[in-house]
Task: structure prediction
Amino acid sequence: MPTVLRVGAYRFFFYAGDADEPPHIHVAYDENIAKFWLDPVRLQNSGGFSRAEINKVNRIINDNQKKLLEAWHEYFGN
Result:
């Protein structure tokens, strides 16, 4: 599960078995793990995060969308 971005305590990563799904990113903080689709950016699963944290993570993903999509395509080769 490659980590592609860290912002503060947030870790953004893929699972190796995610190749059959559209591009997305998982974000972990403590025991919470959310999932966001990347194109367009939208929440798929909040994974225990508060609404305020989800909004913060959403902004981080939007600010790094291009980098995250590039990392997805580089890792999964599509």
Summary: Residues 3 and 13 are 4 Å apart (CA to CA).
